[in-house]
Amino acid sequence: MSVPFRIRCCLCARNIPLAGDAHLLDAAWQRRYPAMTGTIACGPCATGTHWTCTRHGRFVDGHIPSPNEGPDTDASHILRSGTHR
User: Comparing 35 with 77, which gets the higher pLDDT?
Assistant: First the structure.
């Protein structure tokens, strides 16, 4: 059975596996990675790319606050996660 539509990761441009998670990223990711081609990322890119919003105890220039509670890191800037389907 062919799949008529596949979601590609906005960071690595690979197809997100049908059984894999797709993560909706917020504007902080877009600020940090301006070459991204959308806002939906694969699991390895969204959860395996580590960065923090602070440097030397202060927020970096251009910081966009996380809409989620908790520490302001890469994972807090993932808005939603779900399956490809």
Answer: 35
- State how far the Cα of 75 lies from the Cα of 4, in Å rounded to an integer: 30
**Integer Cα distance of 32 and 51 in angstroms:** 9
Say how far apart CA 52 and CA 60 lie, in whole Å.
9
Q: What is the pLDDT of residues 17-47, one digit of tens each?
A: 888 889 999 888 888 889 999 999 999 998 8
Query: Are the C-beta atoms of residues 50 and 71 closer than 8 Å to each other?
Result: no
Start-end of H helices in the chain: 27-32, 43-48
φ/ψ of 54, rounded to 5, equals -120, 155
